[in-house]
Amino acid sequence: MGAIIIGLYAAALMLFGAPPQTVVVLPSADGHVGTVVVERNGEETVLHSAYATSRIDAEGGEHRETSSAAEVKKEFGVALGALPARPVSFNLYFVSGTDELTPASKLELNKAMAELKRRSVPDIVLIGHTDTVGSLESNDRLSLSRAERVRKALMQQGLKAQRIETAGRGEREPLVRTADGVSEPRNRRVEVNVR
């Protein structure tokens, strides 16, 4: 069946010419712009600015231009609307030696919940961490306890348990490198990763 479809497509190309093609560089949510290299017939076109566009018409001619955000939305709005939401991450911090969120992180948890509620079927990964105070074994238990505490809070807000994964990394992946036995608030955290 696949060979028949490919054969029909090849026959259509010979009869009607190549279909038009468009490549547009979209900036990321934070405004970062990458680079796209369009290669056709051994020639390369480099697109490296926001909304830089390369169009190949039915006769094979290339047209370079810069589209506007409105033009891209009009032309590709349906396809862009079908894309999944971009992944986001939040860090929640804890009181030393406990699985109790800091007051600032209780507010951050509310922001995370608002983002989760905007997504129809979020996948959530919670990774707990500790500072270097305490033994490796106790920090492993504490980091998992922190992740589980956040999981329970999310489930109390209506999220399904099967959408939430938890893990504890103990003191193995600090944000701030310290010597053993150092109390570092930024290392006492749960990373909330949402896809």
Q: How much of the residues is beta strand, in percent?
A: 15-25%
Unreliable segments of 5+ consecutive residues? 1-15
Largest sheet: 4 strands, mixed
> Please, how many helices?
4
Secondary-structure-based class equals alpha+beta
Order of helices and strands: HEEEEEHEHEHEE
The CATH fourth-level homologous superfamily of the largest domain: OmpA-like domain
Oligomer: single chain
Using only CA atoms, what is the Rg? 25 Å
Average pLDDT level: 87
CATH T-level fold name of the largest domain? 60s Ribosomal Protein L30, Chain: A
CATH architecture of the largest domain: 2-Layer Sandwich
Describe this structure in words.
- The strands form 3 sheets. This protein has a 4-stranded mixed beta sheet with strand order 6-9-7-8. The chain has a 3-stranded antiparallel beta sheet with strand order 1-4-5, with no helix packed on it. Strands 2-3 form a two-stranded antiparallel sheet.
- By secondary structure, the protein is of the alpha+beta class.
- The chain contains 4 helices and 9 strands; from the N terminus they run αβββββαβαβαββ.
- Mean pLDDT is 87; it is low at 1-15.
- The protein has 2 domains: 17-82, no CATH class; 88-194, 60s Ribosomal Protein L30, Chain: A (2-Layer Sandwich).
